[in-house]
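User: I'm putting together a teaching handout on how multi-component assemblies are represented. Below are the sequence lines for each component of a complex, exactly as they appear in our records. Could you produce the 3D structure of the whole assembly as structure tokens, so the students can see both representations side by side? Please keep the chain order the same as the input.
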Amino acid sequence: MACRETFADIARLAISSESNDDENIKIAAARLAQEARQTASYGRRGVVDVTEQFSAASKELRPGDLVIDDFFTLFEAVGALEIMDPKMDSGLVPPGEPVDPSFDPVAPLNAAQSLWILDQLSSLEIAWLEGSQLSQTVFTSLHLDRLLSAANRYPYTLQYGEPADLSTNESCLTHVVVKAYCVALAKCCAQVLMTVQSQNFYDEEDFVTHLFGQELLPRMGEDDVKTILDDAIRWVVNCDLPADIKAALEARLQARKLYMLSAFGEANLWANLVVYTEDKMTEESHLLAEPIPEAFTDKVQRHLATSTPPRPMLQLTWTESQKKWIKLFSDIDEADRLTDSQARQSPASLQKAVWSFASRDPSTYPRAIFQDLLFAGGTVRDDIPHFDLMLLDIRDLVLAGDVLVDPASFHVEVPSDPRHRCARILETIMDKAYDEYLNLYRMVCQNRCRTRRTFTQAVPLLHELETTIAKQADADIDSIMPQKKLDTVFGKQVKLSPLSSWSRWYKLKIMTETISLGFETDIYLDYEMGGMYWYLSQLNLEKQRLLQHIEAFLLDRMAQIVSSKNVAYSMDCIASQDWINCLREETEVSILLAEALADLYALLSHFKLIKSADRPFAQAQLVYEARMKPYLAVTDPAPPSLESFKSAQTLTGSPEDAVIRVEARVKPIKEHLAKLKKVSPTAGKFVGTEARRNAQIKQLETTSVAIFVGASLLKRTMGSGVGEDGLREVLEVSIPPPGKRYNDWWVVPQIKPKPKSE
Amino acid sequence: MDAPNSASNASAYLSGFLNRTLHLHTTDGRMFAGQMKCTDPERNIILSMTHEYRQPSEADVKLAAERHKRSGKNGNVKVDMKKRFVGLVVVPGKYITKIEVEE
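Assistant: Of course. Below is the structure of the complete assembly, with chains in the same order as your input.
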């Protein structure tokens, strides 16, 4: 009621505001008043039959005439569901068919049928967790539908809250076993929804939270459900059914209980669930089941509130669905392992953990649990506050052994103390960088396309952070604690500017990652690859310069600390030096790979072995701007001009020189990778993700070998005297799609001799 | 309201229904209540914020009767129409059996 009154008030207010003579406002006000009247009158006032007048008026309209509300567009109209169209109208009941399904959920079931229903529910539930909507998965169960029915009431039995007759095994299987499983499943779904909705995710894209007007047993508490489930397990254990089917039923109920306890956070049984599912949810046990497909129907969609067309019920095989469950459980278990106490001590390790988790391509629920571990309560797993994490990050990269980032400096209370004043400056900038910094973790937990997109949106923000906010903070710190000047790659007698340098590092990192993710999500056309790899190499060169600049100051600081004999500071510096060395090696590998690939693609374009930019109606400048859009706001390093981007895609010098260049770039990669292999997990900050790191190094090795092989084949063929145009006759090139590459970030074109035609 | 007799009158007459709540009864016995947004010469009607109403099924009536009996009440059993939200819909003119407007 209150809502209606406010509605009417707004309308009245809007009408009385005569001072504004804007026509639209008047229309809107009249509309609001009308809608308010309607809302208030809804269902109370009488109705008048206007069928005849309406029909007569319709006939008078000329063909093509539309009577349409000014605020309603035909664009919106496209989204309207067409009533009586079987593909659109979820409520359509074909003539002669009863509205309600004939299956009676109260009917007694034999053990084999009950088992089939449980198994079907489990298969449908995982389909929902993988992104299908409830109306085409678990809501199709007529048992669950009965429990969730608006006519049902606490304690939610299949007989609308009334107790059931439990005199036979068959009736107990329905009213005890199937019912318990349904109730627990509904509560599990409710809990999953709560977890997912508390974190960042993309509704309708990765996961559908829509409940279609149903409620998931709101009055049923977790303890109620546990009791019901335990009663069902006890009944199965004590009943006189054949041993094999008894074991199968018990296993389903036990697995449900383990899942429920874990989902509600009462116990961490995800690892057990993996083993339990592998051991007990076998194909043999499922073969005991007797199909009773009439217990499920997509006709439930007739009474579910929905503004979407009907969707068919999903069909998953038992083996498929159990594989998916095992994947889900192990993903969640991995989330737990990746954030263990070792891994979360270092921000860089934790960032690698997030990427490693994302590379498993987990579904939305595990992603939500992972985010919950990382972000709940402003801490990582109730242990490391985000503030400390960020401070540690700044220290590890730019300020190891500096009093500025010493936690003790943050506890100095004398307001005149420079440490106190600088700590406040650091706190302010960390506050401002907070969201963007945490997005480095959170956004990687989204699907790959979203990760790339949100990162591209972060580029200008990080640029802003570096060039204004951090720059100012550096200047402020400098005025309180004058900073040292050194000669570095950035110039003579320059300052470290720690906070700008730190922001710049992340800006460059995100820029290179968005480009690499562009390769992974396959957004570049063949002829763009060379240019993008060239741009990637330029950005990596910038990273390398920044690391050199930071390193110069680190070495200087170390020299002073050695004389001051501060052990803790020395240790920090050594760790930072190891870390920067490792980053420099990694960056060097990226530069070499990117340069080699840029040259290789330029060669392939030159020989017309890959499709060129054949776009007669496109304006090169516009196409270029669209591609470079995320980076156009960055002034340092400014994105290349169209001309330099184009010239990077075309061959410079002779093809022979270019091939030699490619080979020369690939050769040293092996040495750099060998060095990286020797780095310990602590020094290289990949604690907890060792396996992925080793795999990646191997992938990069293979990638570099593949580039070398391709270049050699080109060289040999060029030397065989076929001529530039002849090359196309004897060689063919294919670009491997994501998933078929040695590493998804490095697209090595496959160059092969053409099969000789007979 | 009187029936109009020319195209412009017809248009003006029908415009009077815009944004008013119509009840459209369809050939299959359902009723759709929502605000009219658009109509055309074929009497196709677009309704927004629509609810679908359906006659209760036999099972619904039986359940209501049982409950009524158990609760010990006398007199007639009342069973509500089944209602659900369906949002923006277009009801094709050929299926419309009755048009009502809320006063």
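A couple of points students might notice: Chain B touches chain A through 63 residues (CB under 8 Å). Chain B has one domain: 7-101.
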